[in-house]
Records
---
Amino acid sequence: MKDYIEERAVEIAEHIIRKKTTVRQTAKVFGVSKSTVHKDVTERLPKINPLLASKVKKVLEKNKAERHIRGGKATKMKYQKMSKQI
């Protein structure tokens, strides 16, 4: 069981780095919770592969810095869609 978790953590990390995905998007792809993804990359991965963990951390920090922009775009699209329906 432990091998599976470590393997999953590495696969998740590689996916995040390759696709530049968010924790939410990654969780959906792997069929696990956001909490699981977060725990895998922040707690388990540094013990397994510190170099990979630092690369993932950079992607996640970038995502975090940009999330207010994505939220604003989503809200704008929502209200544009609503105004077209009226």
Note: DSSP finds four helices and no strands in the chain.
---
Amino acid sequence: MKKFSTAALLLALTAGFGTLPMATAQAATPTRCEFLPNAPDQHVVVRGDTLWGISGKFLQHAWCWPQVWGLNKEEIRNPHWIYPGQIVYFDRASGRLRLGNSTGGTGGVVKLSPHMRVQGMGNDAITAIPADAIGPFLSQPLIIEDEELKDAPHIVAPQDGRISLGQGDKAYVVGDLKEATSFQVFRPGTQLKDPVTGKVIANEALYLGTLKLDRRGKTEGEAHTFTVVETKQEMQSGDRILPTPVAPILNYVPHAPTGEVNARVVSIYGGVAAAAQNQIVSINQGKADNIDVGTVLQLSRFGKTIADPSDRKKMIKLPDEEYGTLFIFRVFNHISYGLIMEVKNTVDIGDLAKSPE
């Protein structure tokens, strides 16, 4: 890919949208990052917008905007903040996208100078993809990895001899808490089987709620005392707890995988038979397969092999039918979770999730 000037990259990184010439961007990625022939002259950013949605108004493939900027793998990890009230302009004469602010009363434009925003200052910024769709999945443990539960603390008894625990109840826990005081509670859930081999490749964790530490045990054999803060399902003795992870910054940048990916859809979250746009699915590849957060995959229905009607002994493989896009937002060793971004058909277990062509 052609190298762009430091100034151009800085403007792209700090202003939030690329300002590279259209001709340059198309030369680098001729089939994936072309502007739409009917792209609008401008778009006013409003609360609820996403980078993906805004990009889709200008580019034929919304996910490829980092390629238009010419960013490398490390550079796309930086925040790209855009705020409600700013305006994305399509300068047709120069083939550039520019970010500006309305002056309010005059209808003019104030040119924004490049500036860096530090971590934690992006609370009002729009997100890369719909945050409400994936928020609950970011901090809850979804997959139980090998040996992860071996030494995890666990509930030994609810208060007053109760069978189950609800919000506000006391729970008694044993195990090494280290320095943590806030925990999530879960128990092993559904086994996830590879659609190709039929082997169990992971166990999905059933998220039950959260606990807050009230009092540490004073002796080695004394239980710790917790209060149930939130419950999704009733907790019981034997349920395991893990420290609540730090909430991530919802700033994911889409990109194609570094290598060839030929994965399959393993499960549809919620136990339904088929999934649609903005639903969550898992695939049978993860970190071990060089998939990382932000990876974009092409969803396709697997083409069947049929007998040729004119020669029943001759078998014909039908082509795989592309029908949508999957955005990977959480990755484990052998399983990844993705948000269905754009589909023209339902997503079924066993469908293909491949590198974009």
Note: Residues 39 and 57 are 6 Å apart (CA to CA).
---
Amino acid sequence: MPSRLNPYLSFDGNAREAMEFYREVFGGTLEVNTFGDFGGKEAAGAAADKIMHSMLETTGGFTLMGSDNPPGTAYTPGNSISVSVSGDDAEELRGYWEKLSGTGTVVVPLEKQMWGDVFGMCTDRFGITWLVDIVQQQG
């Protein structure tokens, strides 16, 4: 799978509603996962039904991702968009990560996550938040 770059939107508890709206606008297939889906409903607590990750893929070739802010993080309008780079070429994506995070700030280290992928989040020196996800091959 080639690497791809797409916007990632953050919402203040209404990600499901927003992503369903965008599906009505652009068409396509919407996949939605909640915090409870990955961490278990008890562990996720009040956030269990909030969106941890969603992805809308349209027949026109658009990809839009979104989530609710994780528990304990503030929603700040204007800072509600980041850029996602994902794929299965680990060398290529690690190269992007090193360059983006090298002069920036690492928010989440690039390491294996509970959903199986290697993921990291950083803010580059210009204040842009980047999400790097190395998709693990199904074996």
Note: The domain at 4-134 is CATH 3.10.180.10 (2,3-Dihydroxybiphenyl 1,2-Dioxygenase; domain 1).
---
Amino acid sequence: MVRVDQSHQNPIHWLVFSSADEQIIASGQLQSTEQLEQLSQKAVNREVILLLSASQVQLKRVPLPTKWNRKLEQALPFMLEEHLACDVDELFIAIGQPALDGEQHCVEVAVCDKQWFSQWLALFDAHDIELTRVVPDALLLPEQPDNTLSMIELGEQWLCRLGLWHISAIEKSWGADYLHALQPSKIVHYSPAEGVPEVAPKEAKESEYELPLALLAKQLGNSTFNLRQGVFAAKKKQPQWWRDWRSGLVAAGIAIGCFVVVKGTQLVMLQKQADDFKAQAVATYQQAFPGKVVRPHLLKKQIEGELAGLSNTEHGGFLELTNHLVAVYGEVNNFTPETLRYDRRRNELRIRARANGFQVFGQVKAILEQRGLTVQQGSLNNDGDVVIGEIRLRGDV
């Protein structure tokens, strides 16, 4: 928690406080903003609350013609204009809670000089101190009932709070006149108050006499108001792990994205090839078995069924011999049949083929004989760089 005054040359009070244990961890005072860098390290990984002097922030209740809504928020500066002594464009207006004053709708607002507030925020940003909340200091004094005034001494000032939405910071030199004009019914003070004039009965909270910022820190949970809103809203803090690993994660994300795009493109190409092959298979099936209904997802079973049917007919010998011939292609390279002739009576298949050498025909003959077929090799002739010849396969009659 850091409390600043009107000028950058005024002392700055600070406190490191554990809200869980309600214990003071460290505290101190800087002579001016020139020493603000001393707080940079203390602010690391901590929630920093900035307290602005109540002398620089005015709290007002603005009467409304109807219940608070977004349209009234846009008209709010014009409603305030007649109650201000300066140009409303020079002010920053922070909105608090809608309220009822009797039967009158109103809204709580805090008003401060826009440029002055902006300079303070920029100064803390320059020292890498992230401010999560900004609150007028006296607004964190304990709230008292009725017309009772809360007071605590801070430096050369008294911070005062009257009711829910009335605060001030008074100098000791003229504070008496202010208190006489305010006429509270009672004064509850959290610091020794010998110098406070007897304008009302006093109640000393001696058990709570402590550092002023410690008392204010204990009241943070009782207030939700934050001056960091609108144009001055705090940016969402990025986790430290993200700041440390952001570059690497971004690069990894790009690499993964590229990998997905490449694989996606390959998948599309492979799917297109699969579709082309399926179309070719369907066309071949329709050509081989005209008039048959094609079911692409059952095409393999349809072909197996048709072949099984043929094996029990007069075409069974032809299919058996061609099946043996097809098996050759997995074992012999550069062997290309040109014509096939089948003699059903003799159950003989004549293959005219070409190869890149005489030895290829010898390999084919040897493989087919190993499969239990009767094989006869006809004449072989050179035709340029290839050899053309004939092989006869004979099955059981």
Note: The first helix runs from residue 70 to 81.
